[in-house]
Prior knowledge:
By secondary structure, the protein is α/β, with parallel strands linked by helices. The chain is built from 5 helices and 5 strands.
Amino acid sequence: MPHPRWLLRFYAIIIRKLMTFGMFLHRLPQPHPLVPSFHKDIPTTDPSYSGTIRLLFYTPKYYFRRTGAKRYPLVVNFHGGGFVLGKGSDDARWVSALVHRVDVLCVSVGYRLAPEYPFPAAVEDGTDAVLYLVKNADKFGIDVNRIATTGFSAGGNMAFTVPLRLRQRLAQRSQAENLDQSPGPSVNPEMFLNE
C-alpha cells in the first residue's frame, strides 16, 4: 500500500534537515568553497507549476570589472539529491573548481523538489533557468555560444534532460508563433546539442 502524501512530505523534511547538517560538515575542511557572488529569483513559466527558481551565480575573479564586450562561457549546474533533497549551493566545491580553473561563470539552479513539486517540475525549472540566462546574456556577460550543463546524480539527469526539453519547447514555440518575425533574442535549439 502506498504511503500517504503527508507522510512522504514529513520524511522529506526530516531527511532534508539531516542533509543540511551534513552539508555544513562538508564545508568545514580547507579550502573553503566559494559562496555565491549574487543570486536571482526568477518566476517559472509553466502555470501548472507556478513558483520561483533561485539561481546562484558564482563569478570569476574579475567578473565585476568586465567591459561591455567581455563574455564568459556559462556552466549551468544542477545539484543532486534524487529530485527530493539538496539545494543550489550543495555543489559549491565543484563550482569553485570550475570558476577558478576554467574562468567561467557558473550558475547553480535551485530547482523545486518533490514530493511538493512532482515531476516534471524540476526539468521545467531547469529549462526556465537556461532560457532566462540566454535571454539576459548581455546583462550577465554570457557567451551564448559556449553554454554547458553539469550535475551529479539527479543533477546529471537534469544536465542531460534540460537541453532536450529546451529543444522541444523551442520547437513548440516556433510552431506556435508560426515563425514570427520578431522572436526577441535569437536562440537556435541546435546550439544546446553536440551533434
